[in-house]
Design a protein that fits this description.
By secondary structure, the protein is of the alpha/beta class. The protein is built from 6 helices and 7 strands; from the N terminus they run βαβαββαββαβαα. Helix 3 packs across helix 4.
């Protein structure tokens, strides 16, 4: 049997750029998944469920593949912030995050469509925000417009100026794909980014 293809079940340009860093050939596929939380569902359970659902949503069209599914939420006190979508909501999110800790929960699934084996995990990442005034918040939003980003910032850009410190095992997790953990999952399926 030929080596499995690698498929990213996401249309996120941020996840695509992260996965490109591993130097492995891959394709992307858009998963059709209802991302609404279920009643009483914790952020960790939500991202784990959605990461696997995204991988399984594209599995039927990729019979010999390793499919990567990922989902992320930003939380303050277990309350999911979501993507702001517009300036007013982004201002409200950043005002709420000011001087606080925002925890990003990222679900990851690697699904082997040939064997049916799904490896799943949740990778947390904690962001300690500086105390921000309204002028700083609006200035940041004017420059970067992170309205499609959970938590209303881009850590890979000017958003880094919003933080006091970061706490987690893999800084890529904050952008949406925990590459360190993904490498381990890929290796367990025989795909080694450091081999020819």
């Amino acid at each position: 049997m030929p080596a499995p293809a690698l498929v990213l079940a996401s249309t996120s340009p941020y996840r695509r750029q992260l996965l490109e860093r591993l130097g492995l050939p891959f394709t992307t596929a858009a998963p059709e998944v209802d991302e609404r939380p279920r009643p009483g569902e914790s952020p960790q359970v939500l991202v784990l469920r959605l990461a696997e659902a995204k991988a399984r949503a594209v599995a039927s069209t990729h019979p010999n593949a390793l499919v990567i599914g990922s989902d992320q939420v930003a939380c303050i006190d277990e309350d999911i912030l979501g993507k702001p979508g517009d300036r007013a909501r982004a201002i409200a999110q950043l005002e709420r995050a000011s001087g606080r800790i925002v925890v990003f929960q990222t679900g990851l699934c690697l699904l082997n469509t040939a064997s049916g084996r799904a490896q799943t995990l949740v990778e947390p990442f904690r962001v300690h925000f500086r105390r921000l005034d309204r002028q700083q918040i609006e200035g940041y939003l004017d420059r970067e417009q992170p309205f499609d980003c959970a938590g209303s910032f881009k850590a890979e850009g000017l958003g880094i100026a919003l933080f006091e410190r970061l706490e987690g095992d893999d800084p890529n997790t904050l952008i949406g794909l925990p590459l360190i953990r993904l490498v381990s999952l890929l290796e367990s399926e025989g795909m080694h980014p450091l081999h020819d």
